[in-house]
Design a protein that fits this description.
The chain is of the alpha+beta class. It folds into 3 domains: 202 residues, 3-Layer(bba) Sandwich (FAD/NAD(P)-binding domain); 104 residues, D-Amino Acid Oxidase, Chain A, domain 2; 61 residues, no CATH class. The chain is built from 16 helices and 19 strands.
Amino acid sequence: MDEKFDCIIVGGGIAGLSAAMILARAGLRFLLVERGEFAGAKNVSGGVLWGTDLARLVPEYWDDPNGYERFVRHRRLTLMDGQSAFSLDFKSAHYDEKPYPGVIVLRSRFDNWLAGKVQDAIDASPMSDESFLATNILVEEAITDGERVVGIRAGEERFFADVVILAEGVNNLLTRSVGLQEDYVPADHMMIGIKEVIRLDQGVLEDRFQLDGLSGLSNEFVGYASQGVEGGGFLYTNRESISLGLVLGIKDLREKRLTPYDILNDFKSHPVVVDMLRGGEEVEYSAHTVSSGEIRLMPREVYADGVLIAGEAANLLINAGKAIQGMDYAMRSGILAAEVVAAARDRGDFSAESLQDYRGKLEDSFVMKDMKNFQGAVHLLHEPMMYQILPNLVCDFGRKFFTVESRPTPKTRDMLRETIKDHTSYWSLAKFGINAARSL
């Protein structure tokens, strides 16, 4: 019979590597398979890893800055129209406390670094000769025995395990093949993320964005950034570059007959953004699909006989207005999945009844609590009032309020009344405000 592991992990992203770290420390025999040449080779995203779970996986990671770019000290939300930008700006020294509340990462570099830390944990484990990180392997099929998942097939190779953790990412073909998610995913629940990495001299970058040491900026954009398409923009400061991009609704793009790269080029030409990018060199362009954060897009269940689903494969992601959260959800779900696998190994029971503890742990974690509590905010952010009307209204009012001319200045209340009348109605604005208060 083919060699059998305690666990097989499909995917060398954050969810898979987090699970592998826990399994290595628990002394399990496992195989992690990744289709890229190295962990992170296929991960084009970059952004902020929020929360403190990284410190649990890699204690005192801040002393090894090879994995992350900068820590977030400065946060900014910018509302834009075609000429102007109105920002809510927050900068605080409390972000300096370790472990950092958020670190900016480039996934190809971060995932490869984390894989190295996992390998260190494997080398220190009692199963160092029987646990492996295997790259450049494409898993084509989940092997089942009846309704139970018992392994994977990659080409002519077959690998077996007591349990399989699917951390395959948003294109979750294996999750669908084992019957946990419908084959058809509605376009209005999916978005496309496009990103450019723009290199700047480190000194120029730090002066331009007022950074000190390894401190960094996280900036989200709403309004003109998406050209009236559902979604928004982002900018994150790396060590010697900027990650700049957009997340756009696929259905809205199709209906408006717009292309992501044209919108990105217009975004880059905005007067405010141009100043941020001046003198930069484009060194990377990438795109990938992401979930909108709609909880109804999750698989019908995150476990079955012999299998658990983690990270983006389970569509664990949310943007509730304060931050785009996906990497922290992937890390926590990978940790929880591995903990359940270790407990199931101790019981010698990998049935669905045994693995359902994973659902309970997810429900008790911030992952599912936030996804449930902030679904209203997710829907709110995808309303035209949020990404079209409100940014234009705020910027128009800003122009009126901050412009000083050689004529009598209207009262602020008159400026506001005129601006609201030009863009919407008091009733529509009040309804939006009430919904926002309830959702956030």
